[in-house]
């Protein structure tokens, strides 16, 4: 049986690994000239590591160095609004790992036969019968997997009347700062903007910044430095030590809930199926879960029944996590002074363990 995978990012390569390990012929069509990933850091949470374990790759990622979950949320002045029991989270759910996105892509790509990888192929249309029209001609397969991102050609081909991805009102910057002392992973909330920092195993600091802005606006590093100059340490120091070429900016989109993830002999996964805000850090983890679940279902039940089982398993779960992700970040983007003052007063009064309870459905996934 042949499987064509549209998109060579984390979800697409994970699907290729999963199907290849089951003895299926795979072909990965990637628009870019090479299989790589731009970006900065990426935290793989316990459920994502279990998905990688199902591919036999989890221990190789852990070997690069474990990480701590988010220690909590601070105000721009530095006082704690939410404190997480980091040790309890790790005991309960398992380890976290922080890697460069490119390192995870390299790990997955190395587990796929080189002859299965076709870079520089621009997919233009996908039909439910497994026909894929692309810049190199036309290909057919028993199963097509659309792993081609939030602006998925596969999804638009199958469901042209569905709503387009929607801009959530804030843009995101990701950057890598040079090695310097920081106290674990933390996120800081202001009025309509926030800053997070996560130590990397190699000593560098992965930082992300989100701020309310019109879609398509561009803000450079100098403006970010000025914007956060009066926030608590180490935020100004992290921005001051960063080089302009280390900063990436992307507008933040999410996908309205789809009525199905499958059509005929085609399935969508990852951002193509359920693009979500980055507030819970679950985007890559859910794509890994999708890939493992899809391959297992098809291998066990055959294409049609397997696709139905995949849709039943993945659509409710991913759409629930997308909703929770949207809700988790909403208060950080309030701009009203009375509301943010109330937020900063109420959050420290919330029960301990609320964060862990809210994420239990995400972290406890197994295949």
Automatic annotation (TrEMBL):
<dbReference type="GO" id="GO:0071949">
    <property type="term" value="F:FAD binding"/>
</dbReference>
<dbReference type="GO" id="GO:0004497">
    <property type="term" value="F:monooxygenase activity"/>
</dbReference>
<feature type="domain" description="FAD-binding">
    <location>
        <begin position="2"/>
        <end position="324"/>
    </location>
</feature>
<keyword id="KW-0503">Monooxygenase</keyword>
<dbReference type="InterPro" id="IPR002938">
    <property type="entry name" value="FAD-bd"/>
</dbReference>
<keyword id="KW-0560">Oxidoreductase</keyword>
<dbReference type="InterPro" id="IPR036188">
    <property type="entry name" value="FAD/NAD-bd_sf"/>
</dbReference>
<protein>
    <submittedName>
        <fullName>NAD(P)-binding protein</fullName>
    </submittedName>
</protein>
<dbReference type="Pfam" id="PF01494">
    <property type="entry name" value="FAD_binding_3"/>
</dbReference>
<dbReference type="InterPro" id="IPR050493">
    <property type="entry name" value="FAD-dep_Monooxygenase_BioMet"/>
</dbReference>
